[in-house]
Amino acid sequence: MAGPGLDFEIEIAELESRISALQRQTERSDASEDELRSLRTELAKQLRDVYSSLDPWQTVQIARHKNRPYTKDYLNLAFDDFVELHGDKHFGDDRAMLAGFAKLDRFKVMVLGHQKGRTFKERAACHFGCAHPEGYRKAMVKMRLAEKYKLPLICFIDTPGAYPGIGAEERGQAQVIAESMFMMSQLKTPIICIVIGEGGSGGALGIGVGDRIAVMQHAYYSVISPEGCAGILWKSHEHAPKAAAALKFTSKHLKQLGVVDDVLEEPLGGAHRDHHQMASRLKTYLSRTLTELETKTTDELLDSRYDKFRRIGVFLEDAS
Questions:
Q1: What is the pTM of this model?
Q2: CA–CA separation, 289 vs 299, rounded Å?
Q3: pLDDT at 297 over 90
Q4: Residue 222: what are its φ and ψ, rounded to 5°?
Q5: What is the Cα–Cα distance from 143 to 180, expressed in whole angstroms?
Q6: For residues 33-42, b (16+ Cβ closer than 10 Å) or e, as one string?
Q7: pLDDT tens-digit map of 116-140
Q8: Strands, E, within 223-277: which ranges?
């Protein structure tokens, strides 16, 4: 899927445009065929060069790309028989949080995930991927259902953060995120969490406690957005690139710091260029990981989950 329109991809966009123009020609000569092959080779080289040296702020731009696959895209491409479940039994149905039964190869699973929407109308209805308290309450209801029927839980994280409005705060945003994290820490079924785009703040952590935590190569996972960090430290969003570099939230940093277990390599040029290939890689990872986790007893899952999160971070103890 071409045409990213990012400022660091100007030459790539020009090459893609030239390739598209040649492909549209109904009759091509041998010369044009040779030119097409040459342009494709040059495009692959440009993509490798650019995407092998991305800085953190460029990674953020890719994670937010308008064509990047969302939770619903992966449900359509990697899963079968998805049945969506609605409502939190208290207030309403939050479209920023998708939930439902699905099949992945031989596994029956419960899927939770943030959804941003493609068109402006969809994005507005989904609050641009920022879930309200009812979204996390809906997630918790489905978590209990997964535990009851012994279904593995798969969570797709893709949000700039939980919705920050007054209504959300009045309905207990911080409390419900804490409750969701606590529930996930004790849930007696395998849990796999994958950051597929943005992993921002408590909105991401609300469905981010699991036995395996993975992040896609060009996604980010952070305690705060770069703009939010820049606004606090430098009083201006103009310093977001500087904040992105300081936060160390790219897949490379997350793996080194032990925050995530696995990094899912994306197709050349990012997941937004090839939804099908990315979905195939995701499906392979999920199937392999579910096969591994199903061999563990419930006590083993809970103990290793607890130990996993206790090991994150660095601290000093007073020897005296």
A1: 0.89
A2: 18
A3: yes
A4: -145, 155
A5: 9
A6: eeebeebeee
A7: 989 899 999 989 999 999 999 999 9
A8: 262-264
Neighbour-count burial of 157, counting CB atoms closer than 10 A to its CB (0-12 exposed, 13-18 middle, 19+ buried): buried
Q: What are the φ and ψ backbone dihedral angles of 167, each rounded to 5 degrees? A: -60, -40
Tokens read off for 320: 């005296």
With beta carbons less than 8 A apart as the criterion, state whether 262 and 282 touch: no
Local structure of 154: helix, strand or coil: strand
**Domain range summary for the chain, segments of one domain joined by +:** 10-53, 60-311
Phi and psi at residue 306, to the nearest 5° = -65, -50
pLDDT digits (tens, 9 = 90+) for 20-56: 777 776 566 555 777 788 888 888 888 888 888 899 9
Convert the pLDDT of each residue in 205-243 to its tens digit.
999 999 999 999 999 999 999 999 999 999 998 999 999
CATH says 60-311 is which class? alpha beta
Q: Which residues contact 127 (CB under 8 A, 6 or more apart)?
A: 94, 95, 96, 163
Q: Are 200 and 224 in contact (CB under 8 A)?
A: yes
Q: 7: buried, middle or exposed (CB in 10 Å: 19+, 13-18, 0-12)? A: exposed
Rounded distance between C-alpha atoms, residue 120 and residue 93, angstroms: 19
Rounded to an integer, what distance in angstroms lies between the CA atom of residue 305 and that of residue 41?
45
